Description:
Oligomer: heterodimer
Number of domains of chain A: 2
Order of helices and strands of chain A: HEEEHEHHEEEHHEHHHEEEHEHEEEEHEE
Amino acid sequence: xxxxxDAPAAGLFGPTALFGLLDAIVEAAGADxxxxxxxxxxERYSRFAHERLHQTLDRENVTVTLRLIHDGRLGKVQAxxxxxxxEIVRMARAAAVGPPxxxxxxxxxxxxxxxxxxxxxxxxxxxxxxELTPLAKAGAIASAVTLAxxxxxxxxxxxxxxxxxxxxxxxxxxRAYVPLSEAGWNLVSTWRSLSGLGFRLSRDxxxxxxxxxxxxxxxxxxPGALLGREPGQTVRLTExxxxxxxxxxxxxxxxxxxxxxxxxxxxAVDGASPLDSHAxxxxxxxxxxxxxxxxxxxxxxxxxxxxxxxxxxxxxxxxGAPQCVLHDLRSAVESGATSTGHAHVSRLPFASPVAANLxxxxxxxTEEALVAGIAHGVYVTSFHYVRLVDPQAGxxxxxxxxxxxxxxxxxxxxxxxxVRFTESVxxxxxxxxxxxxxxxxxxxxxxxxxxxxxxxxxxSSFKFDLVDA
Amino acid sequence: xxxxxxxALDLAQGLGAEYADVRYVxxxxxxxxVRNGVPEDPVSGxxxxxxxxxxxxxxxxxxxxASDDVQGAEGTVRRAIAGARAAAAVVRAPVRLAPSPPAxxxxxxxxxxxxxxxxxxxKFKLLEETNARIAASxxxxxxxxxxxxxxxxRHFASTEGSDIVQEFTDxxxxxxxxxxxxxxxxxxxxxxxxxxxxxxxxxxxxxELDLPANGERIGREAVELLSAPSCxxxxxxxIVGPRQLALLIHESCGHAVEADxxxxxxxxxxxxxxxxxxxxxxxxxxxxAVNIVADPTVPGAFGSFWFDDEGVQARKVxxxxxxxxxxxxxxxxxxxxxxxxxxxxxxxxxWSYPPLIFQTNINLEPGERxxxxxIADTEDGLLVDMNRSWSIDDRRRNFRFGTEVGYxxxxxxxxxxxxxxxxxxxxxxxxxxxxxxADATHWHVHGLPCGKGEPKQWGFVGHGCxxxxxxxxxxxxxxA
Lengths: 469, 480
């Protein structure tokens, strides 16, 4: 396949070429209802460990996915675009041997948006992100390393600029195309035994200031500036339940676990969604509002999902109560609902509708005000290797990372070692007594084009797990 | 070597590469899932493309493209060169490669029944039968049966003269039963938690797993767990079964001995290691009973190969000997820094990602006592198996694992079934508390996927182990 004249950037193909490819596949499917989609990926990463820029990656791939309904059964195949359309159709038909689909299941049609072609412009595509070169990245990395050295610290991290195209055509008349850009800086600094994090994610590289991100990382790892003095000895946590300020980096990761707690239509079909299992329960303080905001302007907005269904804003928790679940086409049919545009896009083996642009609504407190409200507690910057322990109760376990500090009399006083925690996500949200104003971004594990935006919050209580000895 | 690969290497050298390698990978895969009697989008796929790695001015560049023509490969080389030149502009520690003799050859894994020759309908029939038997009890609210197959041909060539073709045929399966009563959910899986078990084998591997019978068993056991008492929180002697032990080895040893983590190159993402290069040969990682090797030469094991993805021949490397740390998983670059030869651990996910240090088969070598003898020798303890949740810190030191099942051991005999078991510890202290490793009777290499790198890659690894006993372990919320 050759790029079309409307290709938005090097490595991309543009709607003319992609629709040409997809229309041919749909046509080859003949009388079978068909949905052909293409995901174009141009991933460009530079990763470094202080003096070593050890990885410069420029990855290009095109994956064509055909789903068709043959004799009432679903067949799906993924292939590369140079395979003849007839061969792709043959493979998909060969895979259509499972039990029959639920009646009423159809791919997206004219009624779901008809033809929708997005130009390479904001809010989905920023040319500046496409134009970021490896040399520019290397230069910015060198500056971040120099900044760290001026503080007697070391700097590690990555910068990426990634371009995607998502295109889809169905035999029912839905045709959709969008180019997407994504840029991210992940800067981890180390100073003595401490580490700090600065992380940003946006469609627009122009909104990311590497120096500001590096300074945030350094302020967290070498907290002389934070404390106004040398940080002193690291203290060890001895109490297992304390008030905390969870920085937005940490809280975002906790909130991402809502994707594993049953806020999806398939869990609803099984009677296992929080709307059933937690009906009448409080899942958060009245200040907590969480929704998936794929059409919104922040995070990584995207107009439609992998099935070509328009993305809708879906409220998951509001006023402490569970609100709605996310649907793809299948779960919508099975539960008599309509798709919310949350067909799963990921490398995970088991698919279910998923939120990919989650947002916990910010409050109005400054970071200092959140800390000032704690007489004796802990500040947690981020979490590491968090895993689900109990999906029913929403319990997760993980470690604190990149800056855990003691809070005394409303001030951060001394660094602490990283600590294990085991706590319910719902308990965290219920204990959120004050919410910060700045939104922090984090990606989601194993979910394509994903972002969680969450502010910092002061929690009246948080459960640590004192394993270390 | 095909013409495209030759042209790519020639062009890389012509553009100033001190070293270059090119990997052409083509793969075919199939994944079939039945959940609650309904198929989850059956997926089959084909992929092929080139990945080109170049060393220019002491810095790496890597580019890849899904193409198999000369024009595409040349473009890929130019992008890799541009990346390397950019990195070279700021490099302070130029890359050096430990020597590795060039190699040539063609290899393929063995199988009795080609999984791609088995009709999809036959496979689905087996999954449907299995799914139905998992869900035999009305209290099993969710049943999942999945099998997957892959064939991957990996062709590696380098400017040093290597020209290696390896073909891998893989088979794997996962079963899961979720039983629900009064809002409580209990899970049983087979053959190894939600990640399943895979091997470089053919369809005979699926047949040997006896999915219908084991499906019926896990459905029954998930329901039994609903009535089982919860595991107490306390300090207890702990026998860890092989499926849970495989993940414990993976997380607390395998990742900890990856040289890139030890050297800090993964600091910003997956993390570092509690181990230090200067401690090789001196650090007491475990007790005398603990002997761990990296062995990618085990036939049929998921982490086996003949050459890694920078052309280094697979070999067995001792990692822990009688409890002492003696080896690391290295690449040619990290081996050069350490002053040795590569352990042959550089592997990449398909054609489109650069090779990283991935675990191979990290195996806990069998001891001499049978598991029956070890249980008989346990006065008061707990036997756990099958992972349910896991978490470990960014230095691979502080961990917590939850398991699907536990069995009380009283006076040397297996007792009550217990649910909601978890244990936690500090890796070296935990391994130092290991006082018995079972013999080879139940020793098996468990194949599982492993995520690493930015952007994330999947590696395919194995962990050979049987049962092992650890003394005075923190169970649940027991005394820290």
